[in-house]
């Protein structure tokens, strides 16, 4: 039997009755080439090119291997070379490709198998170009698989076929070479993986490794997030500590009433309106309410309505979508959304424009916000605390503040007393601030000069606790010994005349006090140089000895 004598119709037995076509005992199928092309396309799309290539190469391998076994059974070949040559012939009869053998050499004893062939009309290259398009690498995957499988069956050990040229990658023809393992080039070895069985285990392991990698990445991200979270908690803690202590400073009945109000309202979700002059510590009160509420592990967000930029109020409070207005390059979360689950504190709420008041009222009523340029409303769960240093009732009467918003905010008003109405707290606050600034500036101060203390207690403190804090900070900074001296208080404390002009009758001071403060200040500026050019004596117009006497008399060290 000679391979050239094989005829397709003689090989196949088709039984129209049963619909079974046989090649010897093997059942054969006739497929539409396009259906195969579409199957290939789906494989590439779902598994990727590499995996699809591997599967189709293995599929071709099975076809070739089985064809070799069947033809061995079916025919009596004169030589193994004929048996081998039947492969290309069968491949051609099956309609896959026309094969033109260029050379073929097989020597089992020496383990050598080498052949080269040209493939014409490769159905696979046609289908690949049709459904997937031109490729960077050869595309006749089932064909090379077939050649490998058939040759392996004949040769008795592994043979691999590779395309060195392929129509599918733009070459003028498909050129295939087959080699036994001993004859493989380095380049061929690199392509062997496409011939290996598609292993689910290996594939699974690969996926597992990938998952593990992703898992590690996720864990690292989680770690980073946790670090940031604890950093935030630490900062919140730091803020709380500072505030908790400061709000506790004071024992006056006026302050106690405020603390009682805080205790009463903190655990509810009521809106609170905190009223008080500037510098009375309204934000501390808001913080204390948040800290004592069930929301204390959620954000506390402060918005100072007086410093919000006119055109940006809405985007600041409610956020905006990308492209909502010129300059809105990214989507931005508003303060309300950041505060979700927590508390928002609107300081200087009386400064909101009427337009914003209306939008704000809507948020309070509906508990939802809409981002600027957005079409979707977001539910939010935020407790609102507001503060004002101007009587809102008056703003309402003047038509500057919506009455409905005022009533909505004024559910539970807390009046924070000015410092002049709780003078008994001045000493405690002074001690507290002195300690705070001493530890911050690494100073040591043991006592406060009694005249200075009297001055502090008699002053009217228009800037309230904040003003006191600044005065003490400056005094600690300027202090030279272990006793704290407070200079003149008021709008222009550097000028004795200014102090007199600004002072209430109770604050007017003796000439001796002013003299002492003045000398102390000059000494401070001259770094305690008394005599000589630029010294304190020259500035004060006194002989150095006279200045020393005065200092002794006034108790300046
Ligand atoms: Zn090809």
Could you explain the architecture of this structure?
The structure is a single chain. The protein is α/β, with parallel strands linked by helices and 557 residues long. The protein has 3 domains: 3-198, Trafficking protein particle complex subunit 3 (Muramoyl-pentapeptide Carboxypeptidase, domain 2, 2-Layer Sandwich); 249-417, Rossmann fold, CATH 3.40.50; 420-554, Helicase, Ruva Protein, domain 3 (Orthogonal Bundle), CATH 1.10.8.60. Helix content is 49%, strand content 15%. The strands form 6 sheets. The chain has a 5-stranded parallel β-sheet. A 4-stranded antiparallel β-sheet has the order 4-5-7-6, covered by helices on one side. A hairpin with a 6-residue loop joins strand 13 (368-370) and strand 14. Helix 4 (80-93) runs antiparallel to helix 6 (141-155). It binds zinc ion (ZN). Zinc ion binds next to loops.
Short description:
This protein is an alpha/beta fold and 557 residues long.
Bound molecules: zinc ion
**Helix content range of the residues, please?**
40-55%
Biggest beta sheet attributes = 5 strands, parallel
CATH class designation of the largest domain: Alpha Beta
How would you describe the shape?
elongated
What would you call the structural class?
A: alpha/beta
DSSP strand content: 5-15%
CATH superfamily of the largest domain: Trafficking protein particle complex subunit 3
The total tally of domains equals 3
Order of the strands making up the biggest sheet: 9-12-15-8-16
